[in-house]
Amino acid sequence: MNDQSPVPMLSASQLENNEGPVDNLSDNATMGELIAARFSRRGFLKGSLAVSAIAATVGPIALTLADDARAAGKSAFTFEEVEVGIDKTHHVANGYDADVLLRWGDGIFADSPEFDPLNQTPESQAKQFGYNNDYVGYVPIEGSSEHGLLVVNHEYTNDYLMFPGISKVVKDAKGVAKLETAPADQKRVDIEMAAHGGTVVEIKKTNGKWQVIKDGKLNRRITANTEMRLSGPVAHNDRLMTNVDPCGSVVFGTINNCAGGVTPWGTYVMAEENIHGYFRGKLPEGHKEAANYKRMGIPGGTYAWGKFHDRFDVSKDPNEANRFGWVVEIDVNDPKSIPKKRTALGRCKHEGAESIVAKDGRVVFYLGDDSQFEYIYKFVTRNKFNPDNRAANLDLLDEGTLYVARFDADGTIAWLPVVFGQGPLTEANGFANQADVLIETRRAGDLLGATKMDRPEDIGPNGVNGKVYVMLTNNKARDAANVNPANPRANNAFGHIIEIAEEDGNFAATKGKWEILLKCGDPSVAKVGASFSTETTKNGWFGMPDNCAVDADGRLWISTDGNSPEGTGRTDGIWAVDTEGAARGTSKLFFRVPAGAEMCGPLMLPDMATFMVAVQHPAEDGTDWKEFGRPSYYEDLSTRWPDFKDNMPVRPSVLAITKKGGGKIGV
Ligand code: FEO
Ligand code: CA
Ligand code: CA
Question: What predicted TM-score, i.e. pTM, was given to this entire model?
Answer without folding.
Answer: 0.92
